[in-house]
Amino acid sequence: MRFFVVCPGGLEGVLTQELNAIAQMPTAQALGPWLIDPSPTSPTGGVGLAAPLAGAMILNLHSRIASRVLLQLAEASYRQEDDLYRLTRALAWEDWFSAQQTLRVDVTAHRSPLKSLNFATLRIKDAIVDRLREVSGDRPNIDTAFPNVRVQAHLTATQLTVYLDTSGEALFKRGWRDEKGEAPLKENLAAGILRLSGWQAGQTLFDPMCGSGTFLIEAAQVALSVPAGAIRAGLYERQGKATPQPSRLAYRPLVNVEHGFGFQRLKPFLTQNELQHWENVCQAALAQMVEAQKRFPNTQSLFISGSDINEQLVSMCKGNWQRAHLPGLPVVRQVDALVSKPPAMLGSIGEPLMLLNPPYGERLAIQGGRGDGESEYRDDDNDYYAANTETGRQGAKRSSRESLKALQAQAELDPQFALFLQQFGRHLKDDFGGWDVFVLTADMALPGQLRIKESRRTPLFNGALECRLFRFKMNPP
Fold it and tell me: How far apart are CA 405 and CA 401, in angstroms?
């Protein structure tokens, strides 16, 4: 089978590394051969691969960087909208799902000659509905919010590619986040940044502006071999642990075992043979978790810690940590980043590493509440759309430029914020000598504001917002 694994723009290289590592797992090898495409040389919004059908199970459970796992059903040439209808109607949709299930169709395009993607989407949706009505006498209802089945089509100048989404809800929705208000950095972007930083389990990791704890929780789950989709796969229920419950602060429903993954609602994955594959994959993941817990028996042994000036966010971090079923409580304190100190105990692997996503301008809110201190998070995020739709790409660039100008203008108009950055840069030099510091920001002028020369800058996209991951090598004391 042919798959396309979607990711945030800029993470294609580390996603390729992750996919190759997943393909080498014993459970993956037991299914049959895998072939990962070479890493793309420019942002494409994802990476292609060939794998057995059950590979979708392993990818959805274990990929920390993926946003979605799309299963390719067909690829053919087209010239007009009627070709889309004809080609899509010819597919045996009844083999994948029934007319009693709800449906959503999304279309992306790059250099397509068609004038309206909305009309193209309508024609593809009509083709699927008409095919099922012809075969079964009934038609599926459309649900754009919480569909049972998602179909994704992509148009180039001459080719139509049709995919089934095997993920369902976007994979960055791990199921442990639960807070109200402006939401934080997406979990899969945080996981990709961890890979870009070269962080390893057992290496010191500190976030002085940890917000609700995204970097800390993602790192702890890596160290403890907790799959990204552990909650949605129901792994904790298999251990006799309760499903995470939302609190009164929840601003959106948690994604949990009830929602599961998209492939769990597709007919070919419900055969006895495929269900046994899923059981084997889950049992192997549980065994890895048990072994990792022996290596890191408590929170202190992880060498992962953080702080934040906002007491409410520190409480949210602790709550998210517990909902992620991580051991004990996180090592986090309510401390202003300007007076934060290196952890008393450092890991024995590599240089100590600081990773942060600072707030901007008024969001710093030095006088009171601080905001989350992490970038925008959207429930309706579609990285594939942003990377592969011509109108989406133009919108993303325009949105990025406008957002960046607004952030820069805000910083220029806020002397207090500029002073904070200058003071924080001095604090890094004085108290974090010998540290490797990574900062994710949409402010391209950040190194100058910190008055520290970066050793590397990596372009990344957080949704439509263009960012940079700056690396600063602090001189030893």
Answer: 6
